[in-house]
Amino acid sequence: MAKQNLDFRDKPINLNERGGRKWVYAKKPSGKWFTRRTIFSYVMLLFFVGVPFIRINGNPLILLDVASRKFIIFGAIFWAQDTFILALLMLSFVLFVVLFTVTFGRLWCGWACPQTIFLEMVFRKIEYLIEGDYRARLQLDNSPWTAGKIFKKVLKHGIFILISVAMTNTFLMWFIGSDAWFDLITSPVQENLSGFLIMLLVSAFFYWVYSFFREQICTMVCPYGRMQGVLLDSKTIMVTYDYKRGEPRGGRGDGDCTDCKQCVSVCPTGIDIRNGTQLECINCTACMDQCDKIMHVTGKSPGLIRYASEDSIKGGHSKIWNTRNRAYSVVLLIIFSFFVYTLVTRPVIETTILRTPGLLYQDHENTISNVYNIKIVNKTHNDMPLEIKLISHQGEIRMAGNTMNIKDQDMFESTFLLFIPKDEIKGDKTEIEFGIYSNNELIETYRTTFVGP
Ligand code: SF4
Ligand code: SF4
């Protein structure tokens, strides 16, 4: 076990004695892991900004159009009727995250989470640039308001506000698409007052999170962070202090840890990794880099803090694969295969025909008519000329307006009247069946009811 110093469990590290906020002045990280993370973060940032502009068959790479209940994920379009397939995809994703976390800990938090990327790689870098490293920032915050301090603070917060607005606009494009976003921002504000106010609020929220709330999102709010207690175990690989090698620390024995506390000073959540795995650790690797520098100076081998599991530190050679993650992998494989199967075999068109609510039937001389609403989703990447016929009975369909020529990945909605001869109707509710044809080929049938006297 690591050296038992349990004070850190008394209260969150970023709260002072009176329960108020204690600002974390993290030292600017540097080193091989930070360089790797920086490169990876820039790729992720490019992805975040680029997604609404990358097109596959004319559609964005990812679109989460909640209002129209249309979701595009890597080119595949999911409509409201595909909720089941989408649920399978979500379930696969959740299982993947669980499997990944069980095996590799909070790798996501340190490397790919947008909160970490924006905070550590965008906002904090600007802060370092304007206000300097941790000591200079602490000094600046505790100094009186001079012209120099006001300039630095106004400059920093001005840039933070601009980035927050840019983030909100990019975020919005993920939900409405780049074309609709462009229409929105080029139309007068009064035409879209509610949308404008929402964007203002979201921008203010981003600004507040990255300027003031910061690491508390990870340590106090994020549900994924709270799940770590149940997902991590002694076989999970995470940023770990090798207490066997490091203790006794500070020159009180032959332990490698010099007790310099550099690993603490660089930690963005303000914790001491030497106390063991903690919920606040986002596995950002900053302490690994910092400790490696100390090991270099003291002539010891690097890796006193490294990616390792508790079991491997204890001495045993823990393998990455164990019963737990094998079981998760099997379940994930089954669910993901089922998702792929349902995606590949889903019908090329999806038809919904429902009697118009509130309308019963109309009695004509020899016929009875009902009014129907029809909705057809074309899930192919080709335009489809479609025709609807009643195949269960004699009858005539009169479509209001539009011809049924549906563009690729588009939706058609209309209303039609169905006339059925009275002698074909047996009761007050008759089961009927429609056929949807494309170039005279039956591609889908739809059963519904016809009401009569
Ligand atoms: S940086 Fe390394 S040597 Fe210094 S206190 Fe942390 S673990 Fe010990
Ligand atoms: S303990 Fe190390 S890896 Fe964890 S958050 Fe702090 S600096 Fe990052």
The number of helical segments is 16
Main sheet attributes: strand count, strand direction, barrel closure: 5 strands, antiparallel
Strand content: 15-25%
User: What Rg, in angstroms, do the CA atoms define?
Assistant: 30 Å
Poorly predicted regions are none
Helix/strand-derived category reads: alpha+beta
* Apparent shape: elongated
Number of strands: 17
Bound molecules: iron/sulfur cluster
In whole angstroms, the N-to-C terminal distance is 82 Å
Bin the helical content.
40-55%
Summed over residues and divided by their number, the pLDDT gives a mean of 88
Features:
453 residues, 3-stranded antiparallel beta sheet, 2 domains, Immunoglobulin-like, 5-stranded antiparallel beta sheet, single chain, alpha+beta, binds iron/sulfur cluster
Structure, explained:
This protein is α+β, with helices and mostly antiparallel strands and 453 residues long. The protein folds into two domains: 1-143 and 215-346, no CATH class; 349-451, Sandwich (Immunoglobulin-like). It is 43% helix and 19% strand. The protein has 16 helices and 17 strands. The chain has helices at residues 32-50, 83-104, 107-111, 114-131, 134-142, 147-176, 178-186, 193-213, 216-221, 223-226, 228-231, 243-246, 262-265, 286-298, 310-314, 323-345, and strands spanning 55-56, 59-60, 62-65, 70-73, 76-78, 238-241, 305-308, 349-355, 362-363, 367-378, 384-385, 387-390, 396-399, 405-406, 411-421, 429-438, 441-451. The strands form six sheets. Strands 8, 9, 10, 13 and 15 form a five-stranded antiparallel sheet that branches. Strands 3-4-5 form a three-stranded antiparallel sheet. Strand 9 and strand 10 form a beta hairpin. The longest helix is centred in the middle third of the chain and has 30 residues, at 147-176. The N and C termini lie far apart (82 Å). The model has no long low-confidence stretch (mean pLDDT 88). The structure holds iron/sulfur cluster (2 copies). One iron/sulfur cluster (SF4) is lined by residues 239, 266-269, 271, 273, 281-287.
